Amino acid sequence: MKQTVMMLAVALLMGKAATALAQGTAYAQYTNLPTLYIETTSGADPVDKTNYLPCKVTLVDGDKTTTYTLAKGGVRGRGNSTWSAKKKPWRLKFDSKVALLGKDFAKAKSWTVLANAFDKSLMRNALTYHLGRFMGLEFCPAAVAVDLVMNGTYRGTYQISDQMEVRSKRVPVDEDTGWLLEYANAADKVDDPKIALYWNSGFYGNVQIKNPEFTDDKLTANPALAEEIRSYLNTTIGGHMDTSVNGYDYLDPVKGYRALVDTLALVNWYVATEITANWDGFYSIYSYREGSGAPDTRLHLGPLWDEDLAYGNHHETYDHFADNYFYTHLLADCNFDRNRFPAGFRKMQPVIQHLWDDPWFATAVSHRLQQLMDGGVQAYLEGKVDEMQALLAKSAAKNFALWSIRNDDKGCSTADNRVSWERSVRLLRAFIGSRLAMMKSQVAAKNSANLYLDDTVDDDARIATRAASATGGVNVVMRRTVEAGVWTPVCLPFALTPQIAAYYFGEGTQLAVFSTVSTSGGRAQYHFATTQEVGAGVPCLVKATRAVATPYSFLGVTLTGQPKGYAQGGWGFQGVFGPATLEADGTRLLLEQGSAVAVTAAPVAMPGYRAYFTRPAGTADYAVEVLVDSHPTGIADGPTVDAAANGPTYTPDGKALSAPAATLPHGLYIKKGVKVVR
After folding, report:
1. Angstrom distance (rounded) from CA 678 to CA 665
2. CB 163, CB 141: distance < 8 Å
3. Distance (Å, rounded) from C-alpha 128 to C-alpha 130?
4. What is the rounded distance in angstroms from the CA atom of residue 71 to the CA atom of residue 53?
5. Is 180 helix (H, G, I), strand (E, B) or coil?
6. Which of 591, 585, 671, 582 is CA-nearest to residue 625?
7. E-assigned strands of 365-509?
């Protein structure tokens, strides 16, 4: 007992807390959270963000205690503005890769120990981890809360997280060739090696190349790679995403910005950033892609990172935007203009706002947000706040007994968040619902001029309503897939001008409209004539020069409310907007992959924005042919009456089917040398 008292006295004289000793063991768990011990060899804390101090790290989690010796690496400071806080953040570098947080997380050398000094709830970064997991993001930095004891002194509630790097279970690209990039508005917010962004409309900030590695962080160590990345960022990306790029050059999913980015990652990153209302969301942005030569080199936005000033926790949002404007509007619409921020603070904001000029982006955001809300994102996030409040309660009490919530490490956090830990948690929880409600309202308002059309959805009523009510053009997003190189029946509620046809289906695309039908000797010929333009609602044949597999945006088009059709003695060509059922009476023919086939054995559902051929009853034995400018197209058939009759049946690619024809799923088959539909 006397020896223990003497040890406590010595510890107090050295200015060190002796809590661990008081608990009667060298490595005790302070609360219900795991406890992380960091002990430098020198006994002194790191004083900068450059030099690692060798140390011993011990993690106590229940009855499991794990100790690591960091002789080659160690511990150093980290962070930008957070490094100025009294409660310091740290970075650990182990001598070899360790699974510090278990098998569900990375096995790596580098880990971060976040102080969350400016976030008085202590959980905003962790909440964003849960948001990312809910949204299915590829990589969500870990968020494991611990009590930290450093060099014998209790330091408060901390969070172990992943270092932002290319690694298995971290950023998912090739470690040797994949690119990991960190954008920042200002040069002093990213380290070397970095590249300045100069786009057509000016200077846009700086990008640090975090992977691949450059020797001594010098671009001159690999000038060819440095120039490749510089050209990609400034010419390729800048030439497609700069605010000076507009119209169909901007919107084209094959030639515009959408061809360069993973669109799901883009929409997820944007929606998540809006949900968090992160003040730094457009100031510090991570992205990654595979290196040149990989099968897929699209740029991925994310991961989400540095969320301590998100979810309403930033006093500058109130200082610079009156009447709570920053939180009652989308981040993309919060103008960080040069009058308010002379240095051009948030230079990327206009670029993000410009995305809303693309109706596809607007509808994609709307659909993704609605999907999340229907999936219960609000209740999920609120539940996570409740769980973390229960988990952190004991540790938070100790943390704020050490670090005054009112006066220490205020950073940019709001005064309301510094009243008490409980109040900060309540404010965070309340923010979730109000933010989502605002987003739903404003996203809907921004989509009011847009009409999303899908060939699997019956949109006839919406098209008719918009066509009747629109005083000007309508922005349309059309999802209608088309094959390349074959004549395809198309019927759109807006005109196919030469410009739109080339934009949608490719340069050199051919259009043909119905002219007449001729019949003779048991043969019927549908005649089409090529044309440069097709009117709204007019069914036509399109021979595209490229396949269309993604939705396209159209700006300010004039809609018609009704599809048109042509009839000649029971023969004809009829357009549809919504999906249509071709009845099993043999009077309607479906054009499938360049061949007309009779529908006889069963009804067939045809997707929308197409057209079908009609013929009179009693002509089922007629051979059918389609001609364009009097030239055969290869579209011809002598259709069978009963697709379920006995006899060999094949798939369109020639594979014989052993099952009885009557039991086959509805679809296209080959029987007796002709195409039939069951």
Report:
1. 7
2. no
3. 5
4. 8
5. strand
6. 591
7. 450-454, 474-479, 487-490
Nearest by Cα to 311 from 432, 421, 414: 432
Instruction: Give the whole-angstrom CA distance, residue 226 versus residue 232.
Output: 10
Q: Within 13 Å, how many C-alpha atoms sit on residue 614's CB side?
A: 18
* C-beta separation of 523 from 622 below 8 A: yes
Mean pLDDT of the chain: 89
pLDDT at 6 over 50: no
What is the reported pTM? 0.88
Predicted confidence (pLDDT) at residue 124 exceeds the cutoff of 90: yes
Instruction: Give the number of residues written for the chain.
Output: 678
Residue with tokens 């989690």: 61
Strand-by-strand arrangement of the 668-671 sheet: 656-657, 649-650, 668-671, 674-677
> Residue 451's closest CA among 383, 529, 366?
366
**Could you tell me how many helices (H) and strands (E) the chain has, helices first?**
15, 32
The region that residue 654 occupies, defined by phi over 0 for left and psi between -120 and 50 for alpha, beta otherwise, is: left
Burial profile 502-529: b = 16 or more Cβ within 10 angstroms, e = fewer: ebbbbeebbbbbbbebeeeeeebbbbbe
pLDDT exceeds cutoff 70 at 8: no
pLDDT at 654: 60
The Cα angle at residue 448 between residues 446 and 454, in degrees rounded to 5: 110
C-alpha neighbours within 13 Å on the C-beta side of residue 615: 30
Q: Give backbone dihedrals phi and psi of 376, rounded to 5 degrees, phi first.
A: 90, 35
What's the rounded Cα separation, in Å, for the pair 462 and 546? 29
Does the structure show a pLDDT above 80 at 648?
Answer: no
Rounded distance, CA 288 to CA 297, Å?
9
pLDDT value at residue 583 = 78
Higher pLDDT, 336 or 252: 252
Give the position of tokens 């800048």: 238
* pLDDT band at 447; cut points 50, 70, 90: very high
Q: β-strand 144-150 against 35-40: which pairing, if any?
A: parallel
Beta strands in 274-356, from DSSP E residues, in sequence order:
284-289, 300-301
Please give the average per-residue pLDDT across 621-636, as a whole number: 84
The pLDDT, as a whole number, for residue 651 is: 67
Alpha-carbon gap, residue 421 to 275, rounded angstroms: 22
Question: Position of tokens 């349309």?
Answer: 476
If 0-12 CB within 10 Å is exposed, 13-18 middle and 19+ buried, where does residue 318 land?
Answer: middle
Q: Of 364, 130, 149, 126, which Cα lies nearest the Cα of 266?
A: 364
Q: For residue 116, give the 3-state DSSP assignment.
A: coil
Q: Is the distance from CB of 87 to CB of 403 less than 8 angstroms?
A: yes
Sign of dihedral through CA atoms 333, 339, 344, 345? negative
